[in-house]
Sequence to fold (307 residues):
Amino acid sequence: MNINNRAKGFVCGSVAAATYGMNPLFTLPLYQEGMSVDSVLFYRYGFAVLILGIMLKLQGQSFALKRNEILPLIVGGLLFSASSFFLYISYKHMDAGIASTILFVYPVMVAVIMFLFFHEKVSLLTTFCILLALSGIALLYKGDGDETLSLFGMLLVILSSLSYAIYIVGVNHSSLKTMSTGKLTFYALLFGSSIYIVRLNFCTELQMIPSPSAWVNILAMASLPTVISLLCTAIAIHSIGSTPTAILGALEPVTALFFGVMIFGEQLTPRIIMGILMILVAVTFIAVGKPMMMKVNHLFVRLRHSR
Fold:
C-alpha cells in the first residue's frame, strides 16, 4: 500500500466520521423553525433515497431483490429507522453532543449481543471496555453538582444505539450480508421511511419546508451525514482497512460536541469531558479487539454513517 493511498484512506475516514457528526448542525435549526421530528426525518430519508437511487443507477447497479431478501430488508429498515427516530427525539431532551457520544457505544452493544445470542467468547479486554463505557455513561448522566441529564433522553439514545446494534448483527446473520452497502442503505432508508409516513397520517400531517435555510439544512442533512459519509467510508475501508476506519469514527461524537458547544451553546464540564473520554476509549478498544469483533467490525464501520 503506497503512502498516497494510505493518506487518502485516512482523509476519507476522517471526512466520513466528521460529516456524520454534523447531524445536529442541520437538525437543531429545523426544530427551531418549528418542524417536527417526523417531518424532518421524512425529508431526510426521502431525499437520501433519491440521491442514493440516482447514484446506484449511474453506477449501473441492479435494484432487483431476491425473495429471501425482502423480509430481512423490511425488518432491517424498521430497525434502521427506529434508531434515527429515537436519536432525533433525544435532541429535544438533552444536548446533541452528549447524545451523539452515548450513541457511539453501539459497537459495545454489538459485542454484548454477540455474546448473549451467538455465544461469542468475551475477552478480558471486551469486559473492561463494556464496564468503562457504562461508567462513562454514568458520569454523563450525573453531570456536575446536583444536576442530572434527562433520564428520558438517556433512554432514547440507548434505544437508538440498541436498535442500530441489532440492525448490524441482523444484517451480518442474514441474506443481506453480501449485499452492497449502497443498495442495502437504499432499501433500509426506503422501507424505514414507512414509519414516518404512518406517523404523519400518510403524509396528511407532513409540514412544508418553511424557508430557504430549512431547504439548505434538509438537503445537507440528507447528503453529508448519509451519502458523503457512505462514500468516504467505503474508500477508507478499501485504502486502510476497517479497523483504522473504526478508530477514526471517534471523530463522530467529537464533531457533534464541537458544533454543540460552538454554535448551540452546549456546556462541557470536567465530569462530562471525563465521561466522553471513557466512552471513546472503550469503543476504540472494542473496534480493535480480537477475536469477538473481527466478524462484525468491517460491517458496522461501513454501515454506521447511513443512520
User: Anything to note?
Assistant: The mean pLDDT is 86. The two ends are 31 Å apart (CA to CA). The first helix runs from residue 3 to 20.
